[in-house]
Amino acid sequence: EVYFKNLSKQKQKEVMEKNGNNQKLRVCVATCNRADYSKLAPIMFGIKAEPQFFELDVVVLGSHLIDDYGNTYRMIEQDDFDIHTRLHTIVRGEDEAAMVESVGLALVKLPDVLNRLKPDIMIVHGDRFDALALATSAALMNIRILHIEGGEVSGTIDDSIRHAITKLAHYHVCCTRSAEQHLIAMCEDHDRILLAGCPSYDKLLSAKNKDYMSIIRMWLGEDVKTRDYIVALQHPVTTDIKHSIKMFELTLDALISFNKRTLVLFPNVDAGDKEMVRVMRKKGIEHHPNFRAVKHVPFDQFIQLVAHAGCMIGNSSCGVREVGAFGTPVINLGTRQTGRETGENVLHVRDADTQDKILHALQLQFGKQYPCSKIYGDGNAVPRILKFLKSIDLKEPLQKKFCFPPVKDNISQDIDHILETQSALAVDLGGTNLRVAIVSMKGEIVKKYTQLNPKTYEDRLELILKMCVEAASEAVNVNCRILGVGISTGGRVNPREGIVLHSTKLIQEWSSVDLRTPISDALHLPVWVDNDGNCAALAERKFGHGKGIENFVTLITGTGIGGGIIHQHELIHGSSFCAAELGHIVVSLDGPECLCGSQGCIEAYASGIALQREAKKLHDEDLLLVEGMSMKKEEVVSAAHLIQAAKLGNTKADSVLRTAGTALGLGVVNILHTMNPSLVILSGVLASHYVNAVKDVINRQALSSVKTVDVVVSNLADPALLGAASLVLDYTTRRIY
């Protein structure tokens, strides 16, 4: 260690001699907004404290100079920095074009400033569009650039801007080991990369304001306690402005419902920021008793506010970076920070598309205390950066050199791998058959295997494993890459644990069965399990009539009656996984007995078993067969015979079917009055026989406000298998909350 310290001192001495003993390094620091100043200020203080080595020129531009964003240039003056130049570079507007015009305006104004200052090096921070203008100007004017926080990965256009600045910059200060590796992978010279940590952590980790309560009360009110308020900071996502505005609206709705004192900061200057402010005002946030809406909070006070908050919510990089230093819970919404390294205090809600989802996240996070994280720094970044600046040799060639990795000849790819199809193994456990299929991402059943469902638990599980292993082996031959296993089964299922809690009477020895563990252990694949009715609804959502529909219900009409409910694009399971047992909606108090033990359920009227029961009664009374029908002596009477008899004019059979259709229709009316879906999908072998009867009952019995519902017959051949596949395909191909 002593050797390397002496070596470093010797190098600095040599650099000073090369640069001229009395020559100071002229450093220009350009700051564009409140966020980048919080990172640049510690460096500026460090430079100012060593006048024997450095001359500091400060250039202020961007949102610092806009009243709508708090005129934050004043905090730079309050920190006793002389501002050399103020550049008004923001073009007012609410779309992407305004950002482009702002970059253009900055490019027009900056050359004159840089010609006058003639800095040896310019320090540029981050990934804002203003910073891109600064780096472009300096690079074209042959001014060395030191880029702070390069190599990081987040979301939206910020990634592209950050990496573009990296390519223009001559020196790099990064915050994490991963960022350093990314810079090296981007062919930057390792000798010009400094792993220093985040400069703001120098201030964060030394912040010991004993009078933090006065700060909290000043911004949130006299009656607020520590850990009992929320800090919200959300910015528009410039690559999807419309969605980010909607997400902000849902966030505010969730915060209003959560009913805690909340400090809301205005968003950054970006396309869409004005619309976000309009949303705030539309919802009355600035006058709501639980909210305090502010344009700017000084960084040292902001530190204290987030350090003692019950939670921080939004999509600011501050949430996933700085707040981890205090262990404050954070809810990161959307994709703006996707890819950032985070501590365990951050809960990601990638698809923040419902108020309930955000509200649930608040309930999970609010008031917790996590271990403090130092992913982004240890509090000693500034001394390292100053030392790095002193080591820069101005006599070295200005032209950048890129360190490209060696390129091997004859690089090729296997065409089979290119054409490989992402697929799922789907398992359908029915009352009669056990089916396994390979299902592609597009819903194509590539290969299907069918066996009779064994009567005992041991035989059934053994057969499932055997069929799955066989199908997984075959997947290689048909160029399918299996992502996981989805299982559709009758009965009540706990999908979180992959356990069948209670079975229907159609599947024996099938209660308290852990399906996930043995299948996952045997195949080394993730396994998802759900009820067959829920799977049918998922199949419709991904591949059928329910695609893109926010609220719909699926009813399966087969051996039994089941179904699934999609509400706000999400499947409803219920508190004890018993939601959507639609077959057991009671439509008559003194109706026939159901297999569940109750009376008058839809299933007791309209299921295949119920129709078979009525067919047998008619057959026993010699009232089933009509002209054109025949049955072999050993043939079992089934629902199909009843349907055939009704088609051939048997009034008794037709009456049974009409009663069954009416019972199903009444159940659908109850569903419409409870859930108010926009679509009802009838699935299963009996669906086409019931659809007209259901529509008639809706027209007669339903409230006028729900009569406009669409009732359609499913066009999916295998909804149970496709639904089981969608369990896998939906989860493994998107990151969900």
From TrEMBL:
SUPFAM superfamilies: Actin-like ATPase domain, UDP-Glycosyltransferase/glycogen phosphorylase
Similarity comment text for this entry: In the C-terminal section; belongs to the ROK (NagC/XylR) family.
EC number: 2.7.1.60, 3.2.1.183
Molecular function GO terms recorded: ATP binding; hydrolase activity, hydrolyzing O-glycosyl compounds; metal ion binding; N-acylmannosamine kinase activity; UDP-N-acetylglucosamine 2-epimerase activity
Gene Ontology annotations of biological process type: UDP-N-acetylglucosamine metabolic process
Name of the encoding gene: Gne
Catalytic activities: an N-acyl-D-mannosamine + ATP = an N-acyl-D-mannosamine 6-phosphate + ADP + H(+); UDP-N-acetyl-alpha-D-glucosamine + H2O = aldehydo-N-acetyl-D-mannosamine + UDP + H(+)
Protein name, UniProt field: Bifunctional UDP-N-acetylglucosamine 2-epimerase/N-acetylmannosamine kinase
Active site: 532
A Pfam family this chain is assigned to: Epimerase_2
Residues binding Zn(2+), per UniProt: 584, 594, 596, 601
Pathway: Amino-sugar metabolism; N-acetylneuraminate biosynthesis
Subunit structure: Homodimer. Homotetramer. Homohexamer. The hexameric form exhibits both enzyme activities, whereas the dimeric form only catalyzes the phosphorylation of N-acyl-D-mannosamine.
The UDP-N-acetylglucosamine 2-epimerase domain, residue ranges: 53-390
Main location (coarse class): cytoplasm
Keyword set, alphabetical order: Allosteric enzyme, ATP-binding, Cytoplasm, Hydrolase, Kinase, Metal-binding, Multifunctional enzyme, Nucleotide-binding, Phosphoprotein, Transferase, Zinc
Organism field: Circaetus pectoralis
Localization per record: Cytoplasm, Cytosol
InterPro entries attached to this UniProt entry: ATPase_NBD, ROK, UDP-GlcNAc_Epase, UDP_GlcNAc_Epimerase_2_dom
Positions bound to an N-acyl-D-mannosamine: 492, 504, 532, 581, 584, 603
GO cellular component assignments: cytosol
